Each structure stands twice: as structure tokens, then as C-alpha cells.
Amino acid sequence: MCRWLAYSGTPLLLDTILYKPAHSLIDQSLHSKLGVETTNGDGFGVGWYAANGTPAVLRDVGPAWNNRNLREIADHVQSPLFFAHIRASTGTAVQQTNCHPFRHGRWLWMHNGSIADFHLMRRELFLLVDPQLFNGIEGTTDSEMMFYLALTFGLEQDPPGAVARMAGTVERIGHEKGVEFPLQMTVAVTDGVRVWAFRYSSKGESRSLFYSSRVDTLRTLHPDVEFLQEVSDETRLIVSEPLGDLPGAWNEVPESSYGVVQPGADEMFTFSPQAA
């Protein structure tokens, strides 16, 4: 399906995370180890926050591994918070408006997974989107639909509750259409300050998702790793699959859970769909 990462912490050049790790997202675009597909070449996107607090987005339909524009900005753009996504289409068109991350105001959203038999539910889900938000939908993916349903259900006020109501709505309509397991998702969403990451599937067999260990713990384990000396204790990564094999660096997000990366202590909670 797809691979993605979310970074929050000490401002870094995008290159530091996108290209330099042994199993970077660029490497995963060709050699994914934990994804459904080994190759994720149906487009890519990067979203990052500038000094004014608003996100910029670069998206393209080509594969990430040979995109000169991505390579160029990665060497020059520095940010304390960014999303990156490589796409493997689940059936919708390979076009720029279908590439992640999706943006609405200060919010960014990206997704790995699918709404099963999306074509059966598409009309009903569209009709539930707030009319004031509807014209913001540019593409044809289930991922963007999930974002706009979450916005409709109060994402800007209550991200976990809105995502739970979105998931509950997808499952309800899916079951009405005879779809046994309607939803598969790992989702990241941010307002530019906090990052929420969700791992859930109707079948209870969700796509892989990991978060990095505390930097102060890793410094103790690996005092010779230069990167760990350069970043703050609050630096954190959330990834579809680990960027390397540094012992103790990666922890699996539990099934049916979500976490919040935020100033101060990060938190983990259980996740379950709710009625909208």
C-alpha cells in the first residue's frame, strides 16, 4: 500500500531523515520490508512547517527514488515538523491530487491502508462531508475522504474523537453494504504543534507502525551515534517501518492504539471507532 514517516523535534534538513538513514523512506520506495508491496512508486509527497506556522506541500506522481525536485529541496529545507509519504495505489488514479499528505488550513493528514470496496461506499461517504468543506476535496482517494470526514466530525477541536467517529462511520456504512472488514489504517495528522498517529483495522490485523524511543535513553545506549547528540530530548519519529536496525531504537505501536507527540510527555491510548 504505502509507507510514511512523521518527524517532530529539533529543526533538521529534510535530507537528514529522508535520504541518510540506511533504510530511509527513499530506500523503502524500492525495497519495503514490511509493506504489502515491495515497491511504492505511485507518487510521493512531503509536507513541512515554515516559520509562520503554515504547512507547505510538495507532491508528485513519479517515484520518490529519482525525483530531482525532492532531492533539491531536501538539501535546503529545514523544519521542526514534517510528514513524508510514498504511495502505492490501491486502485485510484496516479495523479498529483491523490498524493499524500493532504492539507486543510494548518492541518496535514496522511494514511496507509484502505477502505475496502470503497466504490460501494463512496457516494454515501461523500454526502456526509460538511458542505462548507466539500469543495476542498481535490482527488479521488479513500484517504482524502477519510480526512474530510474527520474534519466534518470535529478534527480541529478533538482529533482523536473525530478520527474515531470517522472510523465508526466507515465501518457502519461498510457493514450496511456487506463489507466484512471495511477499514484498514495507519494515519498521521498534525496541526503543526502536535502529531497524532493511529493504528487500527476492522480485522485487527493492522499495517505496521513504529515510534522511536526517547532520545535520552538512546544516548545512554549509543553514546557514539552523532545524530543523537545533535537533537533534543523531545525529538521523535513515527514510521511505517524502521529506518535502520539500531538496537532499542524502535517500538511497535500496539494494535488499536493511538499516540500523541507533543511538547512535554508523549502519550499512548487505546483506540476504538465511535458512532458519529
TrEMBL record:
Query: What InterPro entries does the record point to?
Result: EgtC-like, Gamma-glu_amide_hydrolase, GATase_2_dom, Ntn_hydrolases_N
* PROSITE patterns (UniProt xref): GATASE_TYPE_2 (PS51278)
Q: Does the keyword Repressor apply?
A: no
What domain of life is recorded for the organism?
Bacteria
Every copy of the Glutamine amidotransferase type-2 domain together lies at 2-242
The alphabetized UniProt keywords are: Glutamine amidotransferase
Name recorded for this polypeptide: Class II glutamine amidotransferase
